[in-house]
Amino acid sequence: MKILVCIKQVPQKDAPLKLNEAGTWIREDVSYEVNEPDAYALEEALQQKEKHGGEVVVITVGPARSQQVLREALAKGADRAIHLADDSFVALDAVSTARAIAAAIEGQSFDMIFTGLQSDDYGFAQTGVLLAEILGWPHATIIIGIEKTETGLRLKRELEAGQFQWIDMPLPCVLTIQSGINKLRYATLMGIKQARNKPLQQWTRADLKGKLGTNLQTIERLYLPTKQKQTQMLQGPPAEIAKKLVDVLRNEVGVI
After folding, report:
1. pTM for this structure?
2. Per-residue pLDDT tens for 4-54?
3. Which candidate, 45, 53, 98, places its Cα nearest to that of 74?
4. Cα 130-164-1 angle, rounded to 5 deg
């Protein structure tokens, strides 16, 4: 079984974030880590490999610093890595990211592609399903259980209100993995040493030969919310206060 895992480097959850000079994203002087949902996707891929054999390949799209998440994945047990490396990739939207991944894996015949449910920075939750559309593969989201069958996969999906759904999925397919599907492993000292000798292929934007297209979504401006308090006292009999409150919520606040 040949599995591709898409992972992303994101700012650490407790890192102090500052806007860049253009106000379009954060400054680079922060600490980074593996996107948490992607870490669960990697772990699930490694467990599937241990059960059924095969190969686990990791891929990331981002600047040179993003290579660190690939090294961590190789140390945990991934077999090889692909890095789409370019500083401009920081600004890619979900469609362009999916196009870049599809171009990089063309002709490699994967059985499954795993992504995290969403990234901790942009939070689009779109890259996985867009990648499936570009490849023409079936896909399923919010996966919390995977069983190999004779004809493909038996998948458990998390729905709302504590409900679940079991579905059958043919191969090849794309799955977006929910955090908590498994227990994450740590890289061993032996794994860290072995990672140094594992293949890591690099692609540049020029290697993609114009397959990215134009971003369909761009960030015009980011800003920090202003803190402000405003207290309005409503006075009068209870019935009159209730009427005034409804009027404020409807006409001033706009929540009803």
Report:
1. 0.85
2. 999 999 999 888 888 888 888 888 888 999 999 999 999 999 999 999 999
3. 45
4. 55
Point out which residues pair with 148 in neighbouring strands: 153
CB 46 within 8 A of CB 156: no
Long-range Cβ pairs for the range 46-53 (8 Å, 24+)? 46/76, 46/77, 46/78, 46/185, 47/182, 48/1, 48/3, 48/112, 48/146, 48/148, 49/1, 49/3, 49/77, 51/148, 52/1, 52/148, 53/1
CATH architecture under which domain 2-208 falls: 3-Layer(aba) Sandwich (3.40)
Q: Are 5 and 56 in contact (CB under 8 A)?
A: yes
Instruction: Return the closest-CA partner of residue 6 out of 155, 124, 149, 163.
Output: 124
Q: How far apart are CA 166 and CA 9, in angstroms?
A: 31
Instruction: Tell me how many degrees the CA angle 128-140-107 measures, rounded to the nearest 5.
Output: 55
Residue 242 confidence (pLDDT): 93
- Which among 201, 153, 203 has a CA at the least distance from the CA of 177? 153
DSSP for 123-134, written as a single string: ----HHHHHHHH
Under 8 Å CB-to-CB from 197, ≥6 apart: which residues?
Answer: none
Residue labelled with tokens 């401006």 = 221
Distance of CA 129 to CAs 21, 81, 139, 192, Å? 33, 22, 7, 32
Domain boundaries, the chain: 2-208
- What does the pLDDT look like over 157-196, one tens digit per residue? 999 988 999 999 999 999 999 999 999 999 999 999 999 9
Return d(Cα 37, Cα 69) in angstroms, integer: 13
Cα dihedral across residues 119, 67, 202, 214: positive or negative:
positive
**For residue 106, which phi and psi values (nearest 5 degrees)?**
-55, 130
